[in-house]
Structure formats: C-alpha cells, structure tokens
Amino acid sequence: MVTAHRAGLLVLARADLVAAMPGAAVAASAVSEGLADFHFLLDDAARDPWADAPASPEPSQGGW
C-alpha cells in the first residue's frame, strides 16, 4: 500500500486524534513504513455528506 501511495495510485492518511479513537481500531488499521503509520485510505469518489447541505446563514452583525 505504501508503494502505491508513493506512486500516486492511492492516498493514505494518518489518524490525527488517535487518543480519541479506540486503541484496537487504530492498531488494526495501521499500515506502517519505517516511522510513518497510516490509518486511512482516502477515496475521492466517496460522496461528501455535507456537499448538498444548504449554506449556513450569515452570522448576525449585531444591527438590532
């Protein structure tokens, strides 16, 4: 997987908030190369659940 990542065939990412995740899940998902540990395979084809959400209203400017 790391070789494919380096060749640009897929994208691996690291877990940022490891302490907030179940330790067993983090350990089971790790792909290691030297000192680098990757935990996620990013999929550009995956649908963003927020992509179709209406835009948030602008915050009030305090003009009461």
Tell me about the largest β-sheet. Answer: 2 strands, antiparallel
Order of helices and strands: HEHEEE
Outline: elongated
Low-confidence stretches: none
Portion of residues within helices: 10-25%
Distance between the termini: 57 Å
Based on CA atoms alone, the radius of gyration comes out at: 18 Å
- So how many helices? 2
Keywords:
64 residues, alpha+beta, two-stranded antiparallel sheet, two-stranded antiparallel ribbon, elongated
Task: Describe this protein's structure.
The chain is α+β, with helices and mostly antiparallel strands. The protein has a domain at 2-42. Helix content is 19%, strand content 19%. The protein has 2 helices and 4 strands. It has helices at residues 2-6, 23-29, and strands at residues 11-13, 31-33, 36-38, 40-42. Strands 1-4 form a two-stranded antiparallel ribbon. A two-stranded antiparallel sheet has the order 2-3. A hairpin with a 2-residue loop joins strand 2 (31-33) and strand 3. The protein is elongated, with a radius of gyration of 18 Å. The N and C termini lie far apart (57 Å). The model has no long low-confidence stretch (mean pLDDT 79).
Write the layout of secondary structure elements.
Elements (H helix, E strand, L loop, with lengths): L1 H5 L4 E3 L9 H7 L1 E3 L2 E3 L1 E3 L22
Antiparallel strand pairs: 1-4, 2-3
The gist of it:
The chain has 64 residues and is an alpha+beta fold. It has helices at residues 2-6, 23-29, and strands at residues 11-13, 31-33, 36-38, 40-42. It has a domain at 2-42.
